[in-house]
Design goal:
Elements: H1 2-31, H2 48-62, H3 64-70, H4 74-88, H5 96-127, H6 133-151, H7 154-164, H8 177-216, H9 224-238, H10 241-251
Length: 254
């Protein structure tokens, strides 16, 4: 056994010495490998104004989701669709992904005239270098203001002027953008809740009828929601509910 150990130990020593000899070679080989790199230069051959424009552009792209949600028709549509799902009683059907996707496509439909004007008057001339970036942003703001001014309520605009103590302008066109956007959001939420209330009424009446019938039959331990759910779905399908709801949402922007 001692002979076996004596033979094994030199083998381990030889393996250890071999590894120690290979490590520097491996490190040296890695040090000579030319890996691809990326160099970033600021202020060499570029204008500071162009750099600031790129930073502003990336900032605008970062805020694009909030811009789409708050300054377009998306807010009203998604709130109404959520009310519709809760009124039926299906907590997760349709799922959130489907509702958000449907709301996005409806928002594209509603905002298509505004988007076409933005493309014709701002984006396309900017791509052809006929106007500057500042002029394109001014055109974008102008078209979005036209849409928001057509949907906002004067009472909501007056709220922010009452809070700040400033005098309200004579026309809506003179309202600053930081006053117009929150006023537009409040108006959209109120309109969406009004539509949601009207959608709740027939389903609420159906729940009350089912609950009264169950109490008259002495089945007070049975939840009325379980019985009324199939009738709600049947009523919604018979009246073609999705078409009616979609039509009501689209007509509310006219």
């Amino acid at each position: 056994m001692m002979n076996c150990l004596g033979r094994t130990i030199p083998k381990f020593k030889l393996l250890f010495i071999t590894i120690l000899g290979l490590v520097p070679g491996i490190l040296y080989a890695q040090s000579n490998v030319n890996l691809p790199g990326l160099s970033i230069n600021f202020g060499q051959g570029t204008n500071l104004v162009d750099t600031m424009q790129v930073i502003v552009l990336f900032t605008v792209l970062t805020l694009a989701p909030a811009f789409i949600i708050l300054c377009t028709s998306f807010t009203r549509i998604i709130v109404v669709l959520s009310f519709m799902r809760q009124a039926i009683g299906t907590q997760s059907m349709p799922p959130n992904q489907l509702l958000i996707g449907f709301a996005l496509f409806l928002s594209v439909f509603v905002m298509m005239p505004t988007g076409q004007k933005i493309y014709d008057n701002s984006i396309n001339p900017l791509l052809k270098k006929q106007i500057s970036t500042t002029q394109a942003l001014d055109g974008l703001e102008k078209e979005m203001r036209v849409f928001m001014e057509s949907q906002v309520r004067k009472a909501d605009i007056g709220l922010f002027y009452d809070v700040t103590g400033k005098s309200a302008p004579a026309t809506v066109k003179d309202v600053p953008l930081h006053f117009l956007i929150p006023s537009f959001i409040i108006s959209e939420l109120k309109t969406a809740f009004q539509i949601g209330f009207l959608l709740y009424i027939p389903f609420l009446v159906l729940d009350m009828v089912v609950a009264s019938v169950l109490m008259a039959m002495g089945m007070m331990m049975l939840p009325p929601v379980i019985i009324s759910m199939p009738f709600k779905l049947l009523l919604f399908v018979l009246v073609d509910g999705w078409q009616l709801v979609t039509g009501s949402i689209l007509r509310s922007f006219n």
